């Protein structure tokens, strides 16, 4: 597999903020590559640099072997870009939006109408193709934004937070569509702050935090990298205020609360289980359930970044003007 | 090379078409582009008598100044605020093509308004345009210059309320200093110098000579050269500002 996106020491400095700090990346043709990190980690800035929407302060990047600064137009012709906020023209119809997108990418007149019709049908929007987009739901606008990015049949698709703020139905549809596009040969570069999404979709993941790439690997390898620690999930009859007590057990290395359960990172599960039974007895508690688990991508993320999984669930501030 | 140029021109035209679809009949465009010139002119001319040969070039130049720049004062900042401008930045188009496309929308709107005002003013008693070809050239060159000016003024702003006050202030100042109401020769020398730095001065002069038929060739050459130069400068500055905003 050839390299389709390559970034070397890519850096973006905004006034006093170092948004992206000398990152190196390689994305291979045909893969779904995820850039996973919390809000403010530098994901959107990275995607904006790679798609030629903002200039890097330093470093270089190529897309399909075209330099994104010196051969920006050729590089952009190879890619479709889906920003984090749907940015179709609300005053125009869905049909006019797709035709305009096709015109910008130089799709010939005969081909553009057929392509627009096919995409509107694929995304379930054909029935409303003459309606103004302002009346569309958020999920419909998102689908139209994706359709517009596919109008010129790009070989590479950049998606910035593709499912943020969507209802479950639209979310499932878009995740399924990303998989289908990838099966059809489209390379996908997506950013997300949903660990589960990265785990489900991506063949390789780069974890980014504070503008720096922490690690790049496949989800399974990332999980395996922390497998030397084992995980136990346990729930007790009285399950509050036990975190500090559980941390006091010598076999327990870390504790996270998940609803009414405690997720314990331990060195050896076979030694930890008797300790937990003993712990319950001493504290007059009954164990409701106890399970040993393989480490999840979330566990790997927490270990590699030191961030709480709850922090990842923080959504971006809504941009009312953009969404209207 | 020719194919690339043709492709870029087509893309600029498509951007202009899109802007026309969305913005031609927006409220602020109608009020600033269509009504504002008439209101300013009426406010100034109440109680005064002016000949058609003064009213025609003045109103037509002013309608072009406000009309050609009105769309971009709205479109550019609004699209940046909504994020739709990113569609253009992400597409395989040069920044120059984007700026030309944006200006083209204003250019056509400016011509449309200028012709409208010309037809209305031709209903005035004694109104006649002595040299229609020169007048048409004046309309085209004025719309080109003022649409480039509109793009240049609005490119740095990311929201309409930010963009409108400076855009309006600059245009109103140009109207009063550029000989739309009062002949430049009747102004103090310092104002005459400032007027020589304003594109509207050359637009009014060209349209006035075309209206009256009192044509001084050297003066027309200066008007054409000045308006062309102003257009190129405004385009170049707009592209530079846009480039800077990407940093």
How would you describe this structure to a colleague?
- The complex is a heterodimer of chains A (324) and B (247).
- Chain A has helices at 43-50, 72-77, 94-104, 109-122, 138-149, 168-183, 195-201, 219-225, 243-247, 269-282, 297-305, 309-312, 320-323; strands at residues 3-14, 17-28, 32-36, 58-63, 66-67, 79-82, 156-160, 187-192, 204-209, 212-217, 230-236, 252-258, 261-266, 287-293.
- Chain A is of the alpha/beta class and 324 residues long.
- Chain A has 2 domains: 3-223, P-loop containing nucleotide triphosphate hydrolases (Rossmann fold, 3-Layer(aba) Sandwich), CATH 3.40.50; 230-293, Alpha-Beta Plaits (2-Layer Sandwich), CATH 3.30.70.
- In chain A, helix 3 packs across helix 4, helix 3 runs parallel beside helix 5 and helix 8 packs across helix 11.
- The model of chain A is unreliable at 318-324 (pLDDT under 50).
- Chain B is mainly α and 247 residues long.
- Chain B has one domain.
- Helices cover 80% and strands 0% of the residues of chain B.
- Chain B contains 10 helices and no strands.
- In chain B, helix 3 runs antiparallel to helix 7.
- The longest helix of chain B is centred in the first third of the chain and has 31 residues, at 52-82.
- The radius of gyration of chain B is 18 Å and the shape is globular.
- Chain B starts with a helix and ends with a helix.
- The model of chain B has no long low-confidence stretch (mean pLDDT 88).
- The chains are: A alpha/beta (324), B mainly alpha (247).
- Chains A and B meet through helix 2 and helix 3 of A and helix 1 and helix 4 of B.
């Amino acid at each position: 597999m050839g390299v389709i996106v390559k970034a070397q020491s890519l850096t973006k400095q905004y006034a006093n903020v170092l948004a992206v700090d000398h990152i190196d990346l390689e994305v291979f043709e045909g893969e779904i590559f995820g850039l996973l990190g919390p809000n403010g980690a530098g994901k959107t800035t990275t995607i904006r640099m790679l798609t030629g929407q903002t200039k890097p302060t330093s470093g270089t990047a190529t897309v399909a072997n075209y330099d994104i600064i010196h051969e920006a137009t050729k590089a952009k012709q190879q890619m479709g870009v889906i920003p984090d906020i749907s940015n179709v023209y609300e005053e125009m119809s869905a049909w006019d939006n797709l035709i305009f997108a096709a015109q910008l990418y130089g799709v010939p007149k005969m081909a553009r109408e057929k392509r627009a019709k096919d995409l509107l049908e694929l995304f379930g929007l054909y029935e409303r193709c003459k309606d103004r987009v302002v009346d569309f739901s958020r999920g419909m606008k998102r689908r139209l934004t994706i359709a517009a990015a596919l109008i010129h049949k790009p070989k590479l698709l950049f998606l910035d937070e593709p499912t943020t703020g969507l209802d479950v139905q639209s979310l499932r549809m878009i995740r399924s569509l990303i998989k289908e596009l990838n099966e059809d040969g489209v390379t996908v570069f997506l950013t997300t702050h949903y660990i589960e999404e990265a785990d489900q979709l991506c063949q390789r993941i780069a974890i980014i935090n504070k503008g720096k790439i922490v690690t790049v690997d496949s989800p399974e390898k990332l999980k395996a990298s922390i497998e030397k620690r084992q995980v136990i999930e346990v729930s007790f009859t009285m399950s509050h205020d036990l975190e500090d007590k559980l941390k006091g057990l010598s076999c327990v290395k870390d504790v996270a609360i998940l609803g009414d359960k405690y997720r314990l990172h331990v060195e050896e599960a076979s030694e930890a289980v008797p300790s937990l039974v003993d712990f319950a007895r001493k504290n007059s508690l009954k164990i409701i359930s106890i399970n040993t688990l393989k480490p999840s991508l979330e566990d790997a993320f927490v270990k590699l970044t030191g961030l709480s999984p709850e922090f990842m669930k923080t959504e971006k501030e809504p941009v009312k003007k953009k969404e209207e | 090379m020719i194919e690339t140029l043709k492709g870029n021109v087509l893309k600029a035209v498509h951007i202009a078409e899109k802007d026309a679809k969305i913005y031609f009949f927006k409220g602020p465009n109608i009020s600033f582009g269509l009504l504002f010139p008439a209101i300013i002119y009426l406010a100034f001319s109440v109680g005064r008598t002016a000949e058609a040969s003064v009213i025609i070039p003045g109103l037509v130049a002013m309608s072009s100044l406000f009309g050609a720049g009105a769309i971009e004062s709205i479109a550019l900042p609004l699209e940046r605020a909504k994020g739709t401008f990113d569609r253009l930045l992400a597409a395989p188009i040069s920044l120059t093509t984007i700026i030309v496309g944006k200006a083209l929308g204003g250019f056509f709107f400016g011509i449309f308004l200028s012709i409208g005002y010309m037809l209305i003013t031709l209903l005035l008693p004694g109104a006649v345009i002595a040299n229609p070809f020169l007048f048409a050239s004046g309309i085209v060159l004025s719309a080109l210059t003022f649409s480039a000016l509109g793009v240049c003024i609005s490119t740095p702003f990311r929201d309409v309320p930010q963009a409108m006050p400076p855009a309006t202030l600059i245009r109103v100042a140009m109207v009063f200093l550029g000989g739309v109401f009062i002949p430049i020769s009747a102004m103090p020398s310092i104002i005459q110098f400032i007027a020589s730095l304003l594109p509207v001065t050359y637009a009014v002069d060209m349209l006035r000579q075309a209206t009256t038929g009192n044509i001084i060739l050297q003066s027309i050459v200066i008007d054409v050269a000045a308006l062309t130069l102003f257009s190129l400068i405004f385009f170049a500055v707009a592209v530079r500002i846009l480039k800077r905003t990407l940093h």
